[in-house]
Amino acid sequence: MLRPLFRNYSQISQALLPFASRKLRHGQGLTTHCQRANAYASATIERKKFYEDVTISQGEGGLYEINLDRRKLKTPGGKLFTVPNEALAIAVATEWDAQKDTLKFYTMHLTTLCNTALDNPTQRDKNQMITAALKFLETDTICYRVEEPPGLVDLQKNEWDPILDWIENRYNVVIGSSSSIMGPQIPEETKETFHQHLNSYNFWSLTGLEYIITQLKSVILSLGLIDRHLTVEQAVLLSRLEEEYQIKRWGNVEWAHDYDMYELRARTAAGALFVHLTSESATVKRKLLQD
Amino acid sequence: MAAMTSPLRICRGILKEIRALKGPEYKQTMAYNYVMDQFRKNQVTGARYCRAQREALHASHTYLCLLNSTRHHQELHNLYHGKGERSPEEVASLVGLRLPTQPGGKGWEK
């Protein structure tokens, strides 16, 4: 229960939604801990649904807004909630529309991601986000191999090697894998290549990409998903490979394993969709093709 | 290459999820209209490799996964975690045990 709880935190503070005070995200040390506890508590307490109709409208600068009855949705930071395109607006509106009697913020992943991108609660710039995301490359899930048991060794080799080969070819880099606790030695050129590649993403898609990376604990799997080499299901399976192996051996516990898996899938899917819907390059390419 | 199901199945899957969310009047929702619209627009004759179409297919597959996983997660959450934590007495009785009682109280009751 603890792991999902911590994984949740960054989201929860944002999921506190339109009306919560901004104070929650400030402060350091002990107060932060208390606030974290508070944040988590209030995220599990579900707000009553206070609206009937959810609509979208196009406001200034062509940005889309969400309307709950007649009120405009705002971010937890108090900004007007706006998204760059119709598809994302509809997906977010659907999340709000899907709530029944109470608002379950922990099921509204796209809303959460938009809030994070709009408010930028940690006040980071693009460069800091890229560095934070690439930090995961040094400890990338699929680069760490076990030496026993033999079944798992084979499984990791058979499942992870193809995707490692794919990314090395796709980006023309060297990554490699290792069974030592220090992990593989990743050359500086590799990091530089990825740094440049991530720099081509805009702030919104980078927010989504970093989110996927922190969920899957793997830069490689995340890029595989964003480059459409993997589906969400495949990426999540590869990320949880050892867990799946243990499940096969010891049995599946629905309230822990399945619960985690569906949560991870939902978050990863939301992240991937968010990146695809907010990266400008995808739209430009599509227009060129239509001409 | 990512293995994906056919567009028709994905489309149906998404509509089924929207229906699960909204009930019988799901056809009036924005999401329904948008999804139908997108799938109609991206239909092509012949099975030529088309990048835009592949992208659309991947995105729709991802969206289906999002809706589906959120629903399953929600169901499991309600089933196992929806009621918060159990009291020691309840936990004990789950495995057929009872907490010991002490005649006259344990001394810290008021």
Automatic annotation (TrEMBL), chain A:
Its main location: mitochondrion. GO terms for cellular component: mitochondrial inner membrane. It is a peripheral membrane protein. It is found in: Mitochondrion inner membrane. Gene3D superfamilies: ATP12 ATPase, ATP12-like. GO terms for biological process: mitochondrial proton-transporting ATP synthase complex assembly. InterPro entries: ATP12_ATP_synth-F1-assembly, ATP12_ATP_synth-F1-assembly_N, ATP12_ortho_dom_sf. Keywords: Chaperone, Membrane, Mitochondrion, Mitochondrion inner membrane, Transit peptide. Signal peptide: none annotated. The keyword Acyltransferase does not apply. Belongs to the ATP12 family. Interacts with ATP5F1B; involved in the assembly of the F1 component of the mitochondrial ATP synthase (ATPase). Interacts with FMC1. Plays a role in the assembly of the F1 component of the mitochondrial ATP synthase (ATPase). This is ATP synthase mitochondrial F1 complex assembly factor 2. It comes from Chanos chanos (Milkfish).
UniProtKB/TrEMBL annotation, chain B:
This is Protein FMC1 homolog. InterPro entries: FMC1_homologue (IPR037667). Plays a role in the assembly/stability of the mitochondrial membrane ATP synthase (F(1)F(0) ATP synthase or Complex V). The gene is fmc1. Belongs to the FMC1 family. It comes from the Eukaryota. Coiled coil: none annotated. CDD domains: Complex1_LYR_FMC1 (cd20271).
